[in-house]
Amino acid sequence: MSTSVHETERKYEAPGGTALPDLSGLPGVAAVAGPEEQRLEAVYYDTSDLRLARAGLTLRRRTGGDDAGWHLKLPAGVDTREEVRLPPGRAAKHPPKQLGSLVQVHARGRELAPVARIQTTRQRRQLVDDKGRLLVEVVEDLVSGQSLADDSSVDSWREIEVELGERGDVALLDRVEARLADAGITRSWSSAKLGRLLADRIATTTPPPATSGDSAGDVVLAYLREQADALKLQDPRVRRGEDDAVHQMRVATRRMRSALQAFGTIVERDDTRELTDELKWLAGVLGEARDLEVLRTRFADHVAALDEDLVLGPVRAQLTRHFAPLEAAAHEAAVAALDSGRYFALLDAVDALVAAPPFTPTARAKATKVLPDLVDKTYRRLAKRAESAHDDIQLHEARKAAKRLRYAVEVSEPRFGKRAAKYRKEVKAVQELLGEHQDGVVARPVLRELGAKAQLDGENGFTFGLLHGLETAAAQRLEDRFPAVWRGLGKPKLR
């Protein structure tokens, strides 16, 4: 079984002739324990073209030290990574399937094989407080590494790692860094040993040229890249069944699709039609799991709000029996989709889009001139649906149009600041009202099913009938409120 830890760590260059400074006397540090020597060896796994390393991930099998085993490091923020660990087992040509699955958003079915071997002689020091609790760990590493792709020579270097302990804080990391800087030890350009060893193979792509961000194309592309990164970030979290991961991945998928649709005069619409269809497919796959999660939480909250004398029979157990197998099946289906060639092709298309977007001539125009017209067009689409929304289906269509407008304003927000942010929040209020209404529409038939099943099983279906009535009344109130909320929105004023 895997374990997961978050590590906040900084690496430093330690040129020849520089010595590790005295780290005692720092605020909160009662003692410096060590040095303790460790000898470590790690074999790193990746695709032949180093897709994991290029994405900032490392997958290794380490021997030696007090954390021997399989380690997968995933980016999790500035100086921070999540490390997923498994026992070392036997040496193998391929990593465990559990870890291999978590990197498929980058590997995409390609073989994971040994690409490098790194040996480290480590001197470890621990900065502790007056109760002996770890604040910061400082290690001095003598490193030798060799690429396994060819008969390359061994590369050697010296580096310093500083890792935050359970009781430490970033301010202490900054103070340690200041001491190191005074001794001539500065931040490393690489956040991982593997990145340093294979730097000549990893840095084969030319970064996109810097732009002012003033053009319409710049603004839309920045948003598309942000959503592409979010989608990839959530992939391993969805596979592990982490809270809210399905929702966040689905939102990134929808945002990208909506931007491509709303700004088709900036990113050539005919060239992205197939991708938007595939993004719709992915959102649908994720939607099955997400919708079940929303319903289960909704019903549990409603039951918790009832007086206990209105909760007749084993209602909570009935909800668990109903939703648990459905959610498990939906999660299994979602993971199967994420392992499919169709999904890998979608990811390839996303990468191609953000690397070389099919811009139209309009993309070169200033964002402040082009984007307001396109946001206005998206508003008119919503207005057409909202003004004719008189039943559940029409209200749902208005909700989808509101979501597209919200995302279009979101794209524009970096250029229009507070005006756009304020209007986005107003659109979100309309969308959320319609979303609450749609959740009730979806909930009512499920409650009928639960009530009927309870009766067939010889249990009491009263509470499910009560919830059905509450949902019906709530939906009517939302329908009654919608016209006033819609009239209060008004047209976007980004100019």
Description:
This protein is of the alpha+beta class and 495 residues long. 54% of the residues lie in helices and 18% in strands. Strand 7 (134-147) and strand 8 (155-164) form a beta hairpin. The termini are far apart.
Quick structural gist:
With 495 residues, this protein is of the alpha+beta class.
Features:
alpha+beta, 54% helix, 18% strand, 495 residues, 14 helices
Between the first and last Cα atoms, what is the distance in angstroms?
56 Å
Radius of gyration: 27 Å
Please identify the structural class as seen in this structure: alpha+beta
Instruction: Please tally the β strands and state the result.
Output: 9
- What is the ordering of alpha helices and beta strands? EEHEEEHHEEEHEHHHHHHHHHH
Low-pLDDT segments: none
List the helices and strands and how they pair.
Elements lengths: L2 E11 L17 E16 L4 H4 L3 E6 L5 E9 L2 E7 L10 H6 L1 H4 L5 E16 L5 E14 L7 E10 L5 H13 L3 E2 L5 H5 L1 H4 L13 H24 L5 H18 L6 H37 L9 H24 L2 H15 L11 H20 L5 H65 L5 H28 L6
Antiparallel strand pairs: 1-5, 1-8, 1-9, 2-3, 2-6, 3-4, 4-5, 6-7, 7-8
Helix pairs in contact: 7-8, 7-12, 8-9, 8-13, 9-10, 9-11, 12-13, 13-14
